[in-house]
Amino acid sequence: AWLPPLSWHQCKPAVERCQHCECDTDGRFIQYASRVIANHTARTTSYWSPDQALGPPDAEPCEASTKSWLPDAQNCDNNNACSLVLGFEVAVVPAHLKLWISWNAADGLKHFILHFDDSSMIALPPATAFCDMPYTLSLDTDKRLTK
């Protein structure tokens, strides 16, 4: 008999519909961002818009793909011009968080704030990320992540 590790969650949660969710071959629940809030004026075209950050990754790695979000700013000194808030359909206790960087993040990822369903937040330190592989962060929490 095979039993999943205790830190894994039964795939899929008891939710009627989860558009941006799937299960991997080991029965782990995988969820992609389903909501996006841009803290700045968004582009009016669909190219590089904040909505491109939703769902599974489909952009070409290390290219200025029109299938990915790019900030509409000359530089990112103003954090609001280069930030997104991503939300999920199902609040779950996460084991890992993966971010796909489709373009060179020259200054790295500066601000990570994880929001939980009990209204608490955790600010994580800046990180270096590369466009040819997802940035993976192992999480050790018993709280359900919402955004």
TrEMBL record:
Provide GO CC annotations from the record: extracellular space
According to the entry, every stretch annotated as the Pappalysin-1 SD scarf domain falls at 22-146
Q: Which GO MF term does the entry hold, naming one?
A: metalloendopeptidase activity
Return one Gene Ontology term, BP aspect: proteolysis
Query: Could you tell me what this protein is called?
Result: Pappalysin-1 SD scarf domain-containing protein
